[in-house]
Amino acid sequence: MVEVPASDSSAETPALTSEQRRLASGLWLTYALYYIGRVNLSPALVPMAVALGLSRAEVGVIGSALFWSYGLGHLINGQLGNRYRPRVIVGVGLAVTAAVNLLFGFQTALLALTVLWAINGFAQSTGWSPILRILSERLGVEASKRLSVFFSMSYAVGAAVSLALAGWLVTQWGWSSAFLVPGIILAIGCVLWWLSRADAPPPVERQPLIRGMGRDAHRLWPVLTGAAFMGFAYSGSQLWMPALLTDTGLVPEAFAGSLSGLMALLSAGGMLIAGFVLRRSGNPLAVMRGFLALLAAGALLAALTTGAAQIAGVTVMMFTLGAVMALLLTSLPLAYAGPGRISSVSGIASAAQYIGGGLAGVLVGAAIDGIGWGGVLALWAGCALVTLALSGMVERVAGKAGPSNAGDVEALVSDG
Questions:
Q1: Where are the domains of the chain?
Q2: Could you give the angle at the alpha carbon of 130 between the alpha carbons of 23 and 345, nearest 5°?
């Protein structure tokens, strides 16, 4: 593994202008806004199941529909974002996710709910890649890398705010309000996006959409497989966290949504610590292995205990999940993808993550009823241990990190 010394990129890159800072802040807020109409499903799942007479496995299908359509959409919209105006792609995506949330709040049939949330998943995938392209082309590569950790925080903060807001709305006005109010907020956000006129010009040269994807998948299959396993744990914990907190008696039901929002912020803390460690070690595999070991330990502690010890285990699990996903989905592709293949590898890894996340929607819901929360937490610990084992195959399959990419591994931008 090529060691990458820490560097002071701020000394080499000019300070951002006030216009660039406004642009970066606007893009940050826009991507955080996406989560208002996405993570809001989590606090509403159990109340929705009770109100509509559905089992947890049945409502879990709704979450699975989003994860799978999001994974597919990420592959497609990531490519379209390089070929067409990002402003249009993001604007259409915000409009669709606003409309879906408004319609969702009036549905009572499982099929309609599932179809609408699948459409929402595809609309949600219009955000990350086009927004990052605007950031990179308007600010430059070096300035964008300096803002990378800051940008990773957008989805962590967006998820936390969404969980807290939706949790409060559910307790006040029922599950439907957790979608109607975010739908209105997203509609306003869509108008503000169009007024901002943030955009990047289309590229002069357009590459074929699918070229090289099969080769990338073959070279980095341990990374992609690990992304699927960790997607099962990460997306599953996001989706079912309020149920975990209430079913285990850790917190009263009225506070579950708000506390699950605070748990989501722990992931942001994990990202910051991972970025700090990575800048000093330059070895993303070694850093990820350390966080994976902590994640497995935290999940097992939560699975085998109750009360304060269980809260401590869940806290460690959520803290380390953010770090692992950031390293797995961005730092490893940056280190091991060939020249010009980083965007493709990152997109495939994100798609793999949401394939695993899609399985979590159904399987975790069924597992809660079958083996209880102790068994579910043990499954998440197992996902961490499998990914830890797969990390030992990365260099053997893909080769050591090359100098063309090694200087970029300190950038920590993760897809949400």
A1: 21-202+209-406
A2: 130
d(CA 83, CA 330): 22
Tokens of 241: 């966290």
CB 130 within 8 A of CB 231: no
Rg (CA), the chain: 20
| Residues near 241 by beta carbon (within 8 Å), at least 6 away in sequence | 42, 163, 260, 263, 264, 318
The three state secondary structure string of 358-376 is HHHHHHHHHHHHHHHHHHH
Consecutive H or E run containing 259: helix 253-281
What does the block give as tokens for 113?
Answer: 């709910």
| pTM score of the predicted model | 0.70
Topology adopted by domain 21-202+209-406: Growth Hormone; Chain: A; (1.20.1250)
Looking at residue 79, what is its pLDDT? 67
Question: How would you label 135-149 residue by residue, b for 16+ Cβ within 10 Å and e otherwise?
Answer: beebbeeebbbbbbb
Q: Which amino acid is at 19?
A: E
Write down the H helix ranges in 174-220: 177-196, 213-219
Which mean pLDDT values do the consecutive 10-residue runs of the chain (416 residues) have?
40 64 87 92 88 84 84 77 81 96 92 95 87 75 59 78 89 93 96 88 58 70 88 83 74 61 75 80 85 95 88 89 82 64 67 81 78 90 94 73 43 44
Give the per-residue pLDDT at 92: 95
- Rounded Cα distance, 92 and 95, in Å: 5
pLDDT of residue 145: 55
Closest CA to 202 of 91, 79, 88, 85: 85
